[in-house]
Amino acid sequence: MTSATFLNPAMKVTRLVVGNERIPVLVIDDLSLNYNELIACACENVNHSSAFTASNGDLYPGVRKPSPANYSEQLKELLPILKSSFNFIDSNDMKVVFSAFSIATTPETKLRPIQMLPHFDTPSVNQLAAVHFLCAKAYGGTSLYRHKASGFERITQQRLAPYRAMIKQQAIAQRLHERPSYISSDTTLFEQIASLEAKPNRLIVYPSNALHSGNINPDLGLSSNPSTGRLTISSFLAFG
Question: Which of 11, 59, 70, 174 to pair with 188, CA 20 to 30 A apart?
Fold first, then answer.
């Protein structure tokens, strides 16, 4: 990708507050001036060993490839918007601790029980998750959830141990491994509190400790090809 600024000065910013815990969510449409260039970058060397790969330690149900270095640098230009939207007013530093092209490829029959549930990325209150959609609406957006038994919508450090114990017990009782499927709506264990559609060149930002899941549509074939699959860029933004 070129070094030119890719942020669109005419991007549309929508601020939302969802759930009982009033979780801030930012939706930015028409984010990048270099949208097609990003897709082209994702498609480079698709058959090479340096292209998309799966990681054993990554619970993401698919494959990833590092996003361009310049992409992370450009995300930092969103700092003023992010500070005000997520109440990081006193923070003067934002680090992009992870950023990668991501494509959901795992068949439902191969899902692990933990991949069938909403998840959180970290219990830290100082990290945001950002998903930049490089695919059409039909591939599915992202939803936020409430755990019904506890009422938790965000998993903080204080909630971590009791939540983990509870959800493990519930997953075993529900015998999730016998009915593998992607989550995209209410279930016995979770209530969907917000659903944000995929849209080409849309960025969604939310706290990393919010319970969330991609609305992955397996009917589209779960292609590993960036030009035909559920292509996004997933990033984690840490505030100091």
Answer: 59
Separation in Å, CA 19 to CA 22, 70, 198: 5, 34, 20
List, in order, residues 6 or more apart from 47 with CB less than 8 Å away.
none
* Residue that is written with structure tokens 């439902």 in the block: 108
DSSP notation for 49-78: TTS-B--TT--SSEEEEEPPHHHHHHHGGG
Contact 91, 204 (CB under 8 A): no
| pLDDT in single tens digits along all 240 residues of the chain | 444 568 999 999 999 999 999 999 999 999 999 999 999 999 987 666 558 998 877 889 999 999 998 999 999 999 999 999 999 988 888 999 999 999 999 999 999 999 999 999 999 999 999 999 999 999 999 999 999 999 999 999 999 999 999 999 999 999 988 889 999 899 999 999 999 999 999 999 999 999 999 999 999 989 999 999 999 999 999 998
Give residues with Cβ within 8 angstroms of 223, minimum separation 6. Answer: 103, 105, 229
> How far is the C-alpha of 183 from the C-alpha of 37, rounded, in Å?
31
Q: With 0.90 as the threshold, say if the pTM is over it.
A: yes
Helix (H) or strand (E) holding 76: none
CA 116/CA 182 separation, integer angstroms:
5
Grouping H, G, I as helix, E, B as strand and the rest as coil, residue 137 is: helix
